[in-house]
Amino acid sequence: MKEHMRSIWLSMFVVLAVLVTACGGTTGPTTSSSTTNTAPKTVNITVTEFKIASDLTQFSTGVPYHFVVVNKGTTMHEVMIAPPLTGTMTVDDLDKLRLFEVSDIAAGETKTLDYTFKESASLGKMQMACHVPGHYESGMMLPVVIV
């Protein structure tokens, strides 16, 4: 009887080992659509007299961005992402509230900056703008959205 039970247990063990081996085989490489890309996304910004153009105006939180700012104008410019300037705000207030700034961009110069947005901002809450005296007042701003 003990011999018969031992044979049954041994047979069950062999069957279980075969099943585990068959199910645990190696597989080829897989790809996932949810794979996170950590390479920064390039954003091209061009500034000219009293205009800011960007190939992107909607940004996502947690995504690294590489901003490339080209001054194709004839005078010094800057690009700041900050809340819109209101009647009671000063440029010093904006300096405290800005997310980032690329400043002192001479005519013909290109500057870069890497930045990752941490918080969202709906339309009208943030903008790219140049606050060189007289430029903002001349319309040098571009609304942005951060989702």
* CATH homology-level superfamily: Cupredoxins -  blue copper proteins
The largest sheet, given as strand count, sense and whether it forms a barrel, is: 5 strands, mixed
Strand content: 35-45%
- Spatial ordering of strands, largest sheet: 3-9-8-5-6
Describe the structure.
The protein is an alpha+beta fold and 147 residues long. The protein has a single domain, classed as Sandwich (Immunoglobulin-like), CATH 2.60.40.420. It is 20% helix and 38% strand. The protein has helices spanning 2-23, 91-97, and strands spanning 41-48, 51-54, 58-59, 64-71, 77-82, 100-105, 110-116, 121-129, 141-146. The strands form 2 sheets. The protein has a 5-stranded mixed β-sheet. The longest helix is centred in the first third of the chain and has 22 residues, at 2-23.
